[in-house]
């Protein structure tokens, strides 16, 4: 297996769900699980197609509560393709003897290949090859090609090819008590003798989806004229296509699919658009070629070459593939965010959390306009966030922990512990730190791109309104002469209250408080960065007065931060008084303690009682802020924090974390990279393959996108130390030699830049091209200006050399 293919031998029903998620094909507009085309949701298979931004709400009665949930809707299944030989049964994996089976995802070209050889009850042997893609260049199109070869028989084959609207959202066992029937008012029609269409509406959000498919058959290379019969069942439409085949002859069915919804731009209405798309679409091979070309172009920007072992290289490629299938240039106009589990399954119902914090840096370094559009998803939901703050008696904007269609809080208020079968109150929506993550993303996008227009029109307003919210969340404690923040939840979701109290949330959560102080500083910087006219407009518009600015300034000096006696930052006030968990005992008794909260609850205990964290929490500070930045924030707050305290903090929390979120490995790799290279590489490896290697996790319900991309990001921003700050592209490599050589291309101020890192050396090469202002590259004390087509070599312990590479030949000479 190369680093550009992911293959699976045989058919393993227990692993099928995970393979389906790992073999998703998509294009940022829609994505489809790697489910077998003949399958339906049956506990083993789960066909799922999800369109970015297509949410619907349903109310269900659960544990004596009426719960309204918003979910990313599982759309009609366009894969539907099966066949029968003579008058035999329709093909399913159960109805035949499987002689061989394998499946391969072509990571470079986004194509899923499936090969089977089987014998049926009449002892006839048949080979089947299927290829599918969701077109990366034409976002509404997909294709599925099925080739059958009768090895030892001749006879009739009837294919059934169509669209199945009988799907519901039942992909996650824990949610099955909730209603999952989102599609209503389905209609079907035959558009032409080769094309059928199914349309449906989502029950509450009223999104109309239309899917059409054109099915044609070839016998060897000749187009066949099959006998066609229209099949119309309730919420299903298909054509049966019957042909006669001879032994050894190849019969090939091309299914070209178009998917449109009423959320599309440049559209009259989805039914007419789907009709037109299928009518005008090219054939399978042509579409495959343009699809592959689109991938070549995307990889030119996103490729991240490593010279280490093939396993790690494959994981890097696969993780980037899934990023680009979830968000692409086709996402840019859709007004959507980054769903935590991709467009790959139904876990977390397609909701958007803080996970973009781990994903956006990789996008910003390559396609910054996409980051901009993903941030605009948040900007458009500023009114909702303001209303949410107002409703709770706060000022500014309180962004929801889980977001979907319109920015309402979508977090569940009760959740099922599958270990105990109990429905429990859920306070995780108190993760107010989501607002800080959004402000951080805005500020870092601005730092990386210098996009002043964005900052002026949208970014500063978000930062100011979020700061305003945190300033009103904080109260002044006279006894302490400090600002305090009560009743929140941090990234560690095991601690949502103090033990034995009814009050939700915890107090003076260190990450929240310190980042609030950081935010108050950034708010001032953001205002200062605006042109004078825009600054006064915004201040006027938001009715900001000097009292508010004064309060923010005071907060940078007086927010309270809890510490343990030995200088360890306390996760929150009182964390150090909680009981210590006997980790060895739990590790002995349970094969997997990542979801320790569920284990403890099932044992009748409360996770709030223990110094045991789900994921990096205090350590997030070292992930997001440089040591100097953190020291400066704490210094202004009146707390001295020396470099030596960092390892102490890391050590303390490392021993008290169960890594119940894939994000935890990313953060731990990052914070260990300077001091414990080997352990950092271990965590890096864990983050990189969390979905790829986990057979017992929840990957079947969707990939963990932020863990996947955060893992790749470790290579560039952590180990290679690439940073965009202060008008320069900076390198501070702590490169683990066991990872070989890193080669990637990024964009800095619209200039393509090739970076090569190996051991202690960094080579930076700018693409040749039109004259542009030179860019500044900095490594340690060395700083060079690079114009187009120039190269700089840095060694972390020797001065930079600069050399000119010959300019590229003008295009007309090539
Ligand atoms: C983690 C959160 C994360 C969410 C979605 C949870 O398990 O605790 O930090 O945002 O998953 O990925």
UniProtKB/TrEMBL annotation:
Its keywords, alphabetically, are: Glycosidase, Glycosyltransferase, Hydrolase, Transferase
Where does the record place the catalytic residues? 493
Report the top EC class in one word.
Answer: hydrolase
Q: Name one Pfam family in it.
A: Glyco_hydro_65N
Q: Which GO terms describe its biological process?
A: carbohydrate metabolic process
Q: Which SUPFAM superfamilies match?
A: Galactose mutarotase-like, Six-hairpin glycosidases
An example molecular function term from Gene Ontology annotations = carbohydrate binding
Domain Glycoside hydrolase family 65 N-terminal: residue ranges? 9-263
Report what the protein is called.
Answer: Trehalose/maltose hydrolase or phosphorylase
What's the Enzyme Commission number for this chain?
A: 3.1.3.12
The text of the family note is:
Belongs to the glycosyl hydrolase 65 family.
- All residue ranges annotated as the Glycoside hydrolase family 65 central catalytic domain in the record: 318-710
Boundaries of each Glycoside hydrolase family 65 C-terminal domain copy?
A: 723-771
Q: Where is this region: Disordered?
A: 793-814
Which residues are involved in binding substrate?
354-355, 614-615
Q: Which residues form a coiled coil?
A: none
């Amino acid at each position: 297996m190369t680093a550009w293919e992911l293959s699976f031998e045989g058919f393993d029903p227990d692993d099928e769900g995970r393979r389906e998620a790992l073999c998703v094909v998509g294009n940022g507009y829609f994505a489809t699980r790697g489910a077998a085309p003949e399958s339906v949701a049956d506990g083993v298979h789960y066909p799922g197609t999800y369109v970015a931004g297509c949410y619907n709400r349903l109310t269900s009665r659960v544990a004596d509560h009426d719960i309204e949930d918003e979910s990313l809707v599982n759309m009609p299944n366009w894969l539907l393709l099966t066949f029968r030989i003579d008058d035999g049964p329709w093909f399913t994996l159960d109805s035949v003897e499987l002689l061989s089976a394998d499946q391969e995802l072509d990571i470079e070209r986004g194509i899923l290949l499936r090969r089977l050889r089987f014998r049926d009850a009449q002892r006839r042997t048949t080979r089947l090859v299927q290829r599918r893609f969701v077109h990366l260049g034409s976002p509404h199109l997909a294709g599925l090609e099925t080739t059958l070869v009768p090895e030892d028989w001749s006879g009739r084959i009837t294919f059934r090819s169509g669209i199945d609207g009988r799907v519901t959202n039942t992909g996650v066992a824990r949610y099955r008590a909730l209603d999952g029937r989102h599609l209503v008012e389905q209609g079907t029609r035959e558009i032409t003798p080769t094309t059928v269409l199914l349309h449906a509406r989502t029950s509450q959000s009223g999104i109309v989806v239309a899917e059409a498919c054109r099915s044609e058959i070839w016998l060897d290379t000749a187009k066949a004229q099959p006998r066609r019969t229209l099949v119309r069942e309730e919420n299903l439409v298909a054509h049966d296509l019957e042909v006669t085949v001879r032994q050894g002859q190849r019969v090939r069915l091309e299914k070209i699919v178009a998917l449109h919804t009423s959320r599309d731009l440049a559209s009259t209405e989805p039914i007419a658009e789907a009709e037109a798309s299928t009518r005008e679409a090219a054939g399978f091979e042509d579409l495959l070629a343009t699809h592959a070309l689109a991938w070549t172009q995307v990889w030119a920007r996103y490729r991240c070459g490593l010279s280490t072992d093939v396993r790690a290289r494959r994981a890097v490629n696969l993780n980037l593939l899934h990023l680009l299938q979830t968000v692409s240039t086709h996402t840019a106009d859709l007004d959507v965010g980054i769903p935590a589990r991709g467009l790959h399954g139904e876990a977390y119902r397609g909701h958007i959390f803080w996970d973009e914090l781990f994903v956006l840096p990789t996008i910003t370094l390559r396609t910054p306009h996409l980051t901009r559009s993903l941030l605009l998803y948040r900007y458009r939901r500023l009114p909702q966030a303001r209303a949410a703050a107002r409703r709770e008696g706060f000022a500014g904007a309180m962004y929801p922990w889980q977001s979907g269609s319109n920015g309402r809080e979508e977090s569940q208020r009760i959740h099922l512990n599958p270990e105990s079968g109990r429905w429990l109150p859920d306070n995780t929506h108190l993760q107010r730190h989501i607002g800080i993550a959004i402000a951080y993303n805005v500020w870092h996008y601005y730092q990386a791109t210098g996009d002043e227009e964005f900052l002026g029109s949208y970014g500063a307003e978000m930062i100011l309104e979020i700061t305003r919210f945190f300033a009103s969340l904080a109260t002044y404690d006279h006894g302490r002469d400090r600002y305090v923040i009560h009743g929140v939840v941090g990234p560690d979701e095991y601690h949502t209250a103090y033990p034995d109290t009814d009050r939700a949330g915890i107090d003076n959560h260190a990450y929240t408080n310190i980042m609030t102080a950081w935010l108050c500083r950034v708010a001032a910087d953001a205002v200062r960065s605006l042109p004078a006219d825009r600054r006064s407009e915004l201040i006027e518009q938001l009715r900001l007065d000097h009292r508010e600015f004064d309060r923010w300034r005071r907060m940078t000096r007086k927010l309270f931060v809890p510490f343990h006696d030995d200088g360890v930052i306390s996760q929150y006030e009182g964390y150090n008084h909680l009981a210590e968990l006997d980790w060895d005992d739990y590790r002995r008794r349970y094969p997997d303690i990542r979801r320790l909260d569920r284990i403890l609850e099932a044992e009748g205990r409360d996770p709030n009682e223990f110094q045991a964290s789900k994921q990096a929490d205090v350590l997030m500070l070292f992930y997001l802020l440089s040591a100097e930045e953190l020291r400066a924030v704490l210094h202004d707050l009146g707390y001295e924090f020396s470099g030596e305290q960092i390892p102490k903090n890391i050590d303390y929390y490392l021993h008290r974390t169960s890594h119940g979120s894939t994000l935890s490995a990313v953060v731990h790799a990052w914070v260990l990279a300077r001091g414990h290279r080997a352990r950092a590489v271990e965590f890096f490896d864990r983050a990189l393959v969390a979905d790829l290697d986990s057979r017992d996790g929840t990957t079947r319900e969707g990939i963990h996108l932020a863990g996947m991309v955060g893992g790749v990001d470790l290579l560039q921003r952590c180990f290679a130390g690439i940073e965009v700050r202060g008008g320069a592209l900076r390198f501070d490599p702590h490169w683990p030699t066991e990872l070989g050589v890193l080669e990637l291309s990024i964009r800095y101020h619209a200039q393509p830049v090739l970076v090569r890192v190996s051991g202690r050396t960094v080579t930076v090469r700018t693409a040749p091209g039109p004259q542009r202002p030179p860019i500044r590259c900095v490594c340690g004390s060395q700083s060079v200006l690079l114009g187009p087509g120039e190269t700089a070599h840095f060694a972390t312990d020797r001065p930079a050399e600069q050399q000119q590479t010959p300019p590229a030949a003008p295009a007309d000479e090539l």
